[in-house]
């Protein structure tokens, strides 16, 4: 083993791989658009990793074995997250085809009234996003339907899109099914449900303020009723067997989460339970998915397995609703898994080369108090979101950059994981060139800067994170020794 100390690169030189990453991502996203996650971003990450390795081996004299080991350690660190992502793919398919999500949407849409349209839109998108774990799917499906309803009722596009995005990213932020939630917890070594519970301290006040604003705006707006809700409700009821019995699945899932059952076990049980309910309530849909001409146990079994692992398309007679109830299964998670593996290679190279340490050393001098530490994390996360144009990469880089600092200061890892989500996940759709901002603007047909002022939840969350840090509520240090270090 080589014990020769490496030559730590300067903060300026350490920024070179990140600048290369930003430049190549900018070009890639301009060319590929929302399809950048299908391979372009992954290639860019590996290219930036190669630049980092070149500097590390040429300038810092780091051995390749050390870099390789750091990459392996990083990837092994998120191995659980990758397994969870695969199970989530199966769960999202089974929850949709079993009728769990359609039932929630069906009853959720019944509460829409013009005076409370914005509030209802935010709540419905939040519920769907929590249940599916995907803001993109929520916005691309129920979001489009709600946009049409809102336009018919005379609301401005900015207000409607703001309510949709606020609700969708509330779910994306706190859902145990969300890949960003899983990623933030795994990168910072924080148990998933512990991370979610701690986020409630900043998330609940943020969404409450958001709903108050939307309620006031809705009550002061005169709008006409729309028949689209009735049309969607009728189509859902014709396609699925809508039943309150299906709500047993999310209820049991909630109980398992409350009892702190490990994530993988909870998600697996929930997926299996939804699969059983699919066999009971939606056998005709499983037969349709299987493609077999005769409805029997063989076709239903084949349809169920296909629901777990592959893409499904259910014909409802309504093109928008077809998109809403389509699923991707486990295979739909592969681009995210691929991206995470490539990003962990980049993070490993940056760590082994000493570049991350060099960059974070600049931040340390500004972190004398808790509020300074959290504010610096928020600013860094937002900066990386702007620079890298991708929330996954920003979460990974923010987690890696600040993990050691939080440990040295004696703070619990959940403070870093929460701050990362408050800063990165919710601000990604507010940046026009970010993959999220571009995708949502394209899907909704509303420019990013048009809906940005009305995404109150997304704007309030980072500020709430800093506010709670300033108050010091529920922020604990690991031990007294660490506390004395933190106040030095």
UniProtKB/TrEMBL annotation:
Which residues are listed as membrane-spanning? Answer: 12-33, 39-59, 71-91, 111-131, 198-219, 239-257, 264-282, 337-364, 371-393, 451-473
Q: What is its main location?
A: membrane
Indicate where this protein resides in the cell.
Cell membrane
| Pfam families assigned to the protein according to its UniProt record, in alphabetical order | Na_H_antiporter
Alphabetized, the UniProt keywords read: Antiport, Cell membrane, Membrane, Transmembrane, Transmembrane helix, Transport
What positions does the domain Na+/H+ antiporter NhaC-like C-terminal occupy? 167-472
Q: Does the keyword Transmembrane apply?
A: yes
The protein's topology relative to the membrane is: Multi-pass membrane protein
Determine if Transmembrane helix is one of this entry's keywords. yes
The family annotation for this protein states:
Belongs to the NhaC Na(+)/H(+) (TC 2.A.35) antiporter family.
Q: Which NCBIfam families match?
A: antiport_nhaC
Entry protein name? NhaC family Na+:H+ antiporter
């Amino acid at each position: 083993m080589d014990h020769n100390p490496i030559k730590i690169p300067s903060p300026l030189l350490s920024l070179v791989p990140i600048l290369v990453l930003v430049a190549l991502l900018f070009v890639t996203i301009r060319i590929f658009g929302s399809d950048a996650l299908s391979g372009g971003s992954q290639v860019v990450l590996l290219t930036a990793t190669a630049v980092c390795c070149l500097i590390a081996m040429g300038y810092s004299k780091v051995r390749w074995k050390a870099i390789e080991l750091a990459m392996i350690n990083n990837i092994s660190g998120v191995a659980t997250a990758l397994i969870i992502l695969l199970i989530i793919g199966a769960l999202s398919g089974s929850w949709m085809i079993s009728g769990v999500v359609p039932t929630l949407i069906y009853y959720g849409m019944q509460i829409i009234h013009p005076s409370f349209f914005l509030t209802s839109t935010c709540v419905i998108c939040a519920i769907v996003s929590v249940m599916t774990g995907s803001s993109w799917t929520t916005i691309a499906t129920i979001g489009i339907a709600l946009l049409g309803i809102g336009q018919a009722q005379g609301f401005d596009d900015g207000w409607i899109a703001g309510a949709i995005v606020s609700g969708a990213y509330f779910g994306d932020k706190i859902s145990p099914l969300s890949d960003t939630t899983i990623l933030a917890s795994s990168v910072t070594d924080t148990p998933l449900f512990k991370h979610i519970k701690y986020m409630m301290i900043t998330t609940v006040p943020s969404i409450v303020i958001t709903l108050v604003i939307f309620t006031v705006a809705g009550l002061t707006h005169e709008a006409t009723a729309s028949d689209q809700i009735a049309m969607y409700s009728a189509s859902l009821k014709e396609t699925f067997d809508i039943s309150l019995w299906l709500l047993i699945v999310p209820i049991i899932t909630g109980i398992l989460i409350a009892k702190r059952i490990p994530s993988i076990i909870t998600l697996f049980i929930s997926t299996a339970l939804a699969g059983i309910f699919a066999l009971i309530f939606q056998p005709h849909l499983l037969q349709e998915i299987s493609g077999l001409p005769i409805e029997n146990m063989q076709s239903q079994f084949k349809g169920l397995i296909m629901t777990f692992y592959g893409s499904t398309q259910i014909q409802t007679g309504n093109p928008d609703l077809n998109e809403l109830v389509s699923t991707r299964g486990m295979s739909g998670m592969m681009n995210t898994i691929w991206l995470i593996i490539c990003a962990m290679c980049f993070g490993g190279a940056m760590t082994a080369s000493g570049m991350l340490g060099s960059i974070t050393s600049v931040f340390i001098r500004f972190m004398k108090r808790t509020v300074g530490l959290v504010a610096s994390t928020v600013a860094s996360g937002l900066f990386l979101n702007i620079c890298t144009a991708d929330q996954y990469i920003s979460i990974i880089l923010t987690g890696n950059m600040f993990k050691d600092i939080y440990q040295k200061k004696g703070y619990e890892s959940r403070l870093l994981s929460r701050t990362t989500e408050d800063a990165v996940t919710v601000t990604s759709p507010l940046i026009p060139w970010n993959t999220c901002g571009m995708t949502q603007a394209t899907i909704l047909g509303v420019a990013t800067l048009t809906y940005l002022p009305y995404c109150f939840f997304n704007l309030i969350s980072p500020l709430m994170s800093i506010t709670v840090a300033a108050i010091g509520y529920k922020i604990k240090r690991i031990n007294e020794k660490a506390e004395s270090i933190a106040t030095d």
